[in-house]
Amino acid sequence: MANLNIDSIKDRTFDAIVIGSGMSGGWAAKEFTGKGLKTLMLERGRDVKHIKDYPTTNMYPWEFEHRGEMPMALQEANPIVNRCYAFHEDAAHFFVKDKEHPYVQDKPFDWIRGYQVGGKSLLWARQTQRWSDFDFEGPARDGFAVDWPIRYQDIAPWYSYVEKFAGISGNKDGLDELPDGDFLPAFPLNSVEQYFSKHVKGKYGRHVISARCAHLSKPNQIHLDQGRVQCQERILCQRGCPFGGYFSANASTIPWALKSGHLTLRPHSVVQSIIYDETKGKATGVRIVDTNTKETIEYFARIIFVNAAALNTNLVLLNSTSHRFPNGLGNDSGVLGKYVAFHNYSAHISAEYDDFKEWTTDGRNPAGGGYIPRFRNLRKQETDFLRGYASGFSAYRGQNRSWDGVGSSLKENLVKDDLGPWSVGSHMMGETIPKEASYVALDAKQKDDWGVPLLKISMDYDDNDAKMKKDYIDQLTEMFTSAGFANIKASSDHRAPGLDIHEMGGARMGNDPKTSVLNKWNQLHAVNNVFVTDGACMTSTSCQNPSLTYMALTARAVDYAVGEMNKGNI
Amino acid sequence: MHRRTVIKNLALIIGGAALLPSCLQEKGKASIGLKNVDVSADQEKLIGDIAETIIPKTNTPGAKDLQLHLFVLKMVDDCYTKKDQQDFMTGMGQFNDLINKRYGRVFGDCDTKQREQTLLSIEQNKDPKITTYSTELKIFYGIVKNQTINGYTTSKYFMTKQVVYELVPGRYNAFYPVKMKQAV
Fold this sequence. Notes:
The structure holds two protein chains of two kinds. Chain A is of the alpha/beta class. Chain A is built from 13 helices and 20 strands. In chain A, helix 2 packs parallel to helix 9, helix 2 runs parallel beside helix 13 and helix 6 crosses helix 13. Chain B has one domain. At the A-B interface, helix 3, strand 12 and helix 11 of A face helix 3, helix 5, helix 6, helix 7 and strand 1 of B.
C-alpha cells in the first residue's frame, strides 16, 4: 500500500476525528475547530451543500411532476421509508431507500435514515425542549435502566450555549418539568390553542405552551454571522431552507467549522471500525472504505467522536473488535447494543370546535402550534405504568371547499372563502423504557457492500407502552370533552418502533463501568479518547424531543475532551 | 433583449425541435408517453371531455386549456396500483358503452346537460346495492374527478390567479380576524 509512507500517514493524521455529520457530529466539528483542533469529519453519504444542494427548495407545487405524491413504483419498492411522514416528492432525495442499505429486523423496526452531509438535521421536525431533573432522575426514582451520571445543573449551561447559536424560539413558561432556555421570541398560540391552554390550566393545572422550536423567529447577530436570516414561515423545511431559517448542520455548524479553516470534510466514507492500539490502550484512528473507489483507508487522531446516529454508532462500536475488546470497543460490561428504546408516537386525537368563529390565522406557524409537557407521574407515581408522555396540540381552520358536483358551480365552490369550524388535533409522544431484551447486534452472516455486518434490530412495545397509550387517549379525550370540543376521534395506529425517528441508547451513560458504556462525560469508560454524543449515549428516553440534548452533550463533551488533552490525559 | 434571454429562448426552440419527433406519435395512441396503461387517442379525448365537463371553460380557463386530462393520465400511469389501473381501464370501457347505449353517441358529442347529468348521476350513486354503475366504472370516474380537481387546484393558473399560493409567506398571524380575510 502506497499510502503507508510517512508523509501519507501525516496527511491522514488529525487532532480529532468526528464520525458523522448530522445533528451532533456537526456540533462536534464546530466545537473542535473553534478550539483550533485540526478536525476530520467523516460522512458515509454524499455532500449536501447549504442552498446549492437543495434542488426542490424554491419549487412551486405545480412544478412537481406528481404534485408532491410519490409514484406508486417508488412507494412499493420502499415500504419502510414510505411510511415516514416527510417522504414525498419534494424531499425523497434526502432519505435512504429501503434496498440501498438493508438491515435485519428481528422485530419490525422502521429505520428512517438520511445518509448525507447534514444527516437527518435537514429533515427533523425541529422541536427542541430541555430535559429537567424529572427526566435525569427518572431511572433512579422509578427503578429502571441505570442512574444517569449527570443532573440538570451539569448540562444547563450547555443547553444555553447551544441554544444561543442554534436559535430556539419559545416562551419562558417557568415550568419545572420543561426548564426555560435562552430563547428567541415564541411563535404565538392561536385563538383556540390559547383558549385550550387557559382551560386545561384552570381545570387540571396542566400546561399548553407555544411549541419550542429551532427556528429563527428574530435572528441575533450570531445567526446573521452564520449566513442565516429570519424564518420566512414557508414550512417547507424538509427541502432544506435557503434562508437558514431553521437549524441544520448544513446551514449552521458545518459551514461555521469550515470557515475556521480547521475542518476537513470527507463524504463517501463508510467507517468500518475504530482502530484500537493494545499497547497504548487507546484508539488511534478509524478505518474507512471510500464508497467511490472501494479503497480502505486509515485516518489517525488523538480524539475520536462517534456521532454516526444512534443505531449506526452502536454498529461502529460493535464492529470495532480487538484482542482487548472482542465484543466491541469499550464493551467490558456487555451492555453495548442493549437497552435501546424509542418514543411511542402511535396515538392521535382529533376533534372540532364550533367557537372563535371570528378568528382565523394568516400565514403559517413554523412551530406547528402548542406543546403539552408531561403531566403524568411527574412529581410522584400516580398510575399503574411508569413515566409519561408529552403531547402536541394544534388548532387550524380550513376552507369549506366542496369537491362535489361538476361544472361552473364546482369551479365556484373551489374558490369559496367560506371558513369551516376549527379542527383540533393532538399526538402522543411517550417515553419508553430501555430494557436488556431490546437490542441491536451484528448479524452473524450478512455484510453490506463495504464488508460491515448488517445491523440486527430487536425492540418492541411492551405492556407499559400499552397502558400509557390508553392513559393518553383517556386524558386527552377528557380534556377535549371538558373544553367543549365535539366530534372527538381517538385513533391508535400500529406503527412499528422507529417511525418516531427517536431511537436511542445502546451505549448508555452511567456511573458504573460494569453496567454502562460511557461515563458522565460521554467518554468510553474503557477507552478514554473515544466519545459518543449522539442518541446512542442515552440512558433513558424522557418524552422530550432529544436533539437539543445531543447538541448540549456534544458541546460539553468536546470542552471536556480538549481540556483533558491539554492536560495530557488524552 | 438580454443576451441571456436570447440564449434561453434559443435553447427553448432547439429543445422544441428535439421534441418534435415524439409529436409524430403512433396513430391512435395517447399524446403522452405512458408506461403502465395503454390509452388510445380516443380514450384520451374521452378523459379530456369528462375533465372539461368537471372543470369547463367559463370566463376562466377550463380543463382542456390547462391540459388537466394529461395530468390525469400521468397520475393514473404513475401513482396508482396495478389493480386501480386495471379497474380504471375496465371502468372506462364500461363508461363508453353506457353512453353509447344511453345516447347513441360518444360522450364528447353529447350536449352539456347530458354530460353533466351523466357525471352527477354516477357521483351521486353511492348506494352499493344499486348496480346502475359498476364498481369499476365508479373507480374510473372517481379517479378522473379527483385528479382533475387535484390538477386544477394545484395548477399554476389556479395558484397564481384564483387562490394564490405563497411560497414565502414571511408571516404568521396567530389572531387574524375573519373579516380581514374576507376583505382580501
